[in-house]
Queue: 2 jobs
Job 1
Amino acid sequence: MLLKSSLSLAAAALLAVPVAHAQPAAQPLQFEVKEGNNLNSFYRQGPVAAHLLLRSGLDPRILVAFPAGNSGVGLWFDHLGQTATWRMVTPPTAQTVEDAKGRKLYGITATAEITASALQVKQAVLSSVRVLRDYQSDGIKTPEVETTPSISGQTILWQRDRLDGAPGYRLAVTVVQGTLAMGRITAGADGKITLRIEAQSGETPLTPLQGDALLSPKANRDPAARNTLSFLSYREKFMAGSWRFNTYFGRDTMMSLSLLMPALQPEAIEGGLRSVIARLSPQGEAAHEEGIGEFAVLDHLRHHQPLTDAPEYDYAMIDSSYMLAPLVERALLGSPAGMARARAFLAAPSGKAGDAQETAGAALMRNLRYVLATTQPFAQNPSVAHLLAIKDGRTTGEWRDSNDGLGLGRYPYDVNAVLAPAALRAIQRLTASGVLAPYMSGEDKSAFARAGAAADIWASKAPTFFDVAVPAAQAKADVTAYAAALKVPAQAALKAVGAQPLRFHALSLNADGAPVRVVNSDPGFALMFGSPDPVVLDRDVTAMMRPFPAGLMTDVGLLVANAVYGTPEDKGRFTQSAYHGLVVWSWQQALLAAGLDRQLKRRDLSVPVRTHLVAARTALWKGIEAHRDMASSELWSWAFENGHYKVVAFGAGAGDADESNAAQLWSSAYLGLTPVH
């Protein structure tokens, strides 16, 4: 980026003047997370909520993400020849400034030090976090938001209005120790550079949801999980994760509510439900993600539409639409407040933008009708062709939403074997309870009456299409070869294979019905939402808990995928650097833990099966507790060194597909679980 010294330095300085405001009485939420090369500092107080990320290593950067409008500012420096390390000198504090038009911008100021002989400014990006994500992960520049900096003494300032003229974004970096000349910052004799960072956004602040309004007395006393959940919780919606997903994601919201429900206040649960219901499509599909703030403005601009920030919703994922009914059934029918509260929730406004008359009950019916319509073909004729496929032209459609996450399969296991039958069962129970009666037509009553029978067919037939059996001799050969390729031990894994064929549920099916033979953690959904036959339950838990590389269990946690029995192409897709590969996702461990708890409440399990589940739960929790410091993160990878597996922060490696969020909504799920020691 070409830097220029502005001749009108006084004018530039006046663009954003700090404004003195009385501080709110409440103490700020403030915490720090060190993850790999990333030093993350979180701050929230009053209208200010910000996540400051300082990236060490050979490609240093400064980034500040704001939940308000899913906005952010970032500054990237040129590649270094030697590793540089950041240190926080003064943690973030609130700073409100006014732009040239007297409009308030809310943000933070902080001071940080980096051990580097020099830093050369490469690129600054001020916009939606989705624009920052594109630049960080793929190097994609967005010409419409390019911002020319001004230099005044030792300060570089970037500031601009939003594209539609609304209050915009500001980033100021002042060299406190070192010297600045033409965009190059040079260290002093001690080899260190100290910078004061000021970052603000003019997007409308959200309303924090915190304390007793968020968590019930049943919530675990886990400070890290509480901090994560608090930073991501607002009365308008829950954020999926920071820094990369500071906005609504339907799947993340619903899975988090399902796992956190014992720990949340009823108002928080209902607020989360309403955020999903308000964003349903006219056909009843649940929105995966929303485009808001300047991302929405950009999209309207590129489609030659009026320049507004009207939200846009992505309905590309198929799993979210089958998560809502089970969540609603559990939240409303299982509420201690009883049916009166359930009826009141459904009768209240849905929250849909521009429609104050629509009730939550009427909106919910759209989703339930969608579930019934899309599952009917399989219920009438159970075949691969009638399973639920990801949408045409896409390689993603459920939580494994990287391009290779499903191994290029078309029919996901979790959606078909678990979520579809669970949604139908929930519709059956909601119908029987009578809470849907005010919103049903005569035609609805006959269709909804068939939900239970359809659930039975889906639950009994759909999982069988995903069955995989590997002869014991072949399984041992596969494990031996894969262990050698990865340079990990095979002894425990080989012992766990045994003499019988090794069985597991495929990750997905190809278009022709052939299974993608990747051992995976998705049977955790079946434990959480279904009632598998005890034999199948025992088999699924065995498949997941076998020591890697026969199964998924390692010293660093439960992996989400293992292509040991797959094709060479599968092995190339599911690596330690793949977003949904040989990596640990914190919430998938929480899902399995919650699922094991739920299954152990059954009364139809034999003593051997029950004993096996108890042992699996103990082993799982041992792994969780061993890396509790990572639990609130999105995911992590691993390395095998000196005879041991060790945690490696995802995004620390040059070949990693992306970067992990330091604060992830569904990774706070442990607040709703009972640890097993």
Note: Confidence is low (pLDDT under 50) at residues 1-15, 20-25.
Job 2
Amino acid sequence: MWPFRRRGRLPHSVSSGNVVTIALELYRHQGNRYFLLSLFAHAWFFLLTIAALLIMAVALIVGGILAGAIDNVSPFLLLTGMSALVALPLYLFGWTRLMASGALLSRRIYAVLTALEESESAARRFIFPKMLHYLLATLIVGFILLLVYVVLGAIGYLIYLVGAPLVQLLEQNIQIQPARGLFFLTFLLSILLLVLLALLVISYFMARLSLVDVVLALEPDCTPLKSVRRSWQLTQGQAWHTLTVFFVASLATIPANLLGSIINGVVIIPVAGFFVAVLLLPLWQAIKAVLYWDLRVRNEGAAFQVRPEAVNPLRWLRRVTLRTPESIELDFALGGIGSRVLAWLIDQIILYTALVLFSLAAGYIYFYALYPWLIEVLPASGQSIEAWSLGIYLLVMFALYNGYYIFFETYWQGQTPGKRYAEIRVVQDNGRPIGLREATLRSLLQPIDFAFFGIGAFLVALSRSEKRLGDMVAGTLVIQDEQATRLAPKATTLQQPQAAWVQELRSLAHWEQMTPEHYLLVRNYLNSRDRLSPVGRYQAAQELRQQLEPLLLPTYPANWPALSAEDFLEGLYIAYRQQYQSSP
């Protein structure tokens, strides 16, 4: 075996932030049609739900009147039961049709992503006859999540039974005031950590089961139970990635949901909420479609296939051409709303963790050492001391918060730790690295971008240049930190036992049939195979060999050794390089 190194992400795999960005661009591609599909689906659900509620209301009113007239509750119970038998199927039909319509959106968007030709009528014929499957799959997922809630509730109750007496005992035996304060702070932090852990467990299961409807929409002969197992299989080893995608998407849609909620509160009739739900359904289904493709690439090697499906989803990122002062044109992919939200999230976690720790340490020193000393030195200035202390504390927090962004963006060439994780960076409009002035303006204008219902997020999502207010004032752009060399494999050497076979392959193969794209597929597979699941690794190698071998060797020599698919691809890689003296 040749020592290919494991480096970088898999070719054509997508970062968590870019999943959201690409989904938004796919939504824009046929946004009007996707919006209409979502509108009709929500209208079905809304009207059937109203019909079910009206039937129940009429039955309750008539049953109540009859029960009062004859002094017997039997008519009330009979009418209530009969109305429930009619109303429940109406509601379930509306809900199931909404789910099937969401699956239709995912299938249509996935076809665009992978360059597959399929009409909407053909997609409907595949989706809607299986409406019952979507309902059953939802019930199975709901039952699994219910079991998770029950188990977590039982564990929480056991912790309470064991922990409550222990807490009371410790409280009674701790008499020193600073120690009591530290004890209660530790107790509250422990409760918070347990709650966060429970939420993380619930989120983990929800992420692992999040692709059930997409699996039903895209894979033939899939039953409800099989779709649940398939979603679990696809997300194996990728739960954190999946969870990050949905969390980033939730953060990115907060401004739209917040605006809709405020309008609903003013108008009373939930028109804005209905509109926001209609608007966001195609985005969520697009995210699932892109995530489904990405997980197949990561776990099953879906990108290592010689067919139109093996396309690079990064082509959907918006690009910009910048001209430097030296009249050199530079082409970049813009950062995108998803990657920017992901970077912001990572930075906020780092920042607030540091600020909380700083506040706890500073508060402890202030209240138990500095403040008593100040009161002793200046006994008549208690209120002034408190006001000045608060002012200094807020000023220090402001300096630390903004200093974080200013320092890192200035000295890390436009990157913070969050931006480095999300693989984006800030540059000037002419492509040059940003300096202290640009970093300061961007940081100071960040609060304004969050004001007015997250106007910065709207500007990034809707404008062509993806600039928030801070970028407009500072004259900056956020771009993808593209480094294709991350995926380049190390040079490899041919082991002696395989040398004779490779030399024969080099002389017999029809090399004119092998394109550079075929070579890159082989190279990328060999470089990335260790990160695939065992089944995905085997299937990707088999499919790649089955598609390349007939092109290069129409007649397979009978005296050749029996080779596995990976051995064949390794030999093919070396033979091609020797034939054309290409670099790795």
Note: The chain is about 70% helix and 5% strand.
